[in-house]
TrEMBL record:
The keyword Transmembrane applies. This is DUF1282 domain-containing protein. Its main location: membrane. It holds the Pfam family Yip1. It comes from Thauera aminoaromatica.
Length: 190
């Protein structure tokens, strides 16, 4: 899987996705090579935020709160990917698409890449910039879901593929909000 294909995968159901469809990377490979390393970024950025933009937004939070938030966020991320994979699989089967968990996991592992990368916006130190980059990343993730559903799950009908993508994206947005609440709660409530 070529990381340089990700930007093309956002705008196309073919570019990059053809390679993924041919290789069919195993779930353990996707976890070790994509999910685990990428999911480290947000917790690291949470810790970085503790001394920058986060300290300005949450001035009363101590470093211990930030550390707990980072750990909880990391753990929650690792629950969310398999939950998303199962959601994708169920939605796909409802439209007579692929019932293979591996295909659904592939989409679930690829889709959050823009969200994980968006955490790097913390480096710029502006809360508004972080929010703006996060919203753009959310849109890119939605497009990855749409193209992944189209290419990997075998849902040929455009309307049905769009329905599955919309259902999965809605669940994904809810999941991401829960992750943010978990981190925010740890920073503010502990």
């Amino acid at each position: 899987m070529d990381v340089m294909q990700f930007p093309r995968m956002v705008v196309s159901s073919r570019d990059g996705w053809d390679l993924v469809a041919r290789e069919r990377p195993p779930m353990d490979w996707l976890f070790r090579r994509l999910v685990l390393p990428m999911s480290l970024l947000p917790p690291l950025m949470i810790l970085l935020a503790s001394g920058g933009v986060g300290a300005r937004v949450f001035p009363d939070a101590g470093f211990g709160n930030w550390l707990i938030a980072a750990v909880l966020f990391f753990v929650a991320e690792h629950f969310s990917v398999p939950i998303m994979a199962n959601s994708i699989r169920q939605a796909s089967m409802a439209k007579d698409g692929s019932s293979r968990l591996e295909d659904a996991y592939t989409v679930a592992a690829i889709a959050p890449v823009p969200l994980w990368l968006s955490s790097l916006a913390v480096v710029f130190g502006s809360a508004w910039f972080v929010v703006l980059v996060g919203l753009v990343a959310l849109g890119a993730s939605a497009m990855l879901i749409r193209h992944g559903v189209d290419r990997l799950l075998g849902i040929d009908e455009d309307v049905e593929a769009s329905e599955v993508a919309m259902q999965v994206t809605s669940f994904g947005v809810l999941t991401w909000l829960v992750l943010l609440v978990v981190a925010g709660g740890a920073v503010t409530l502990l």
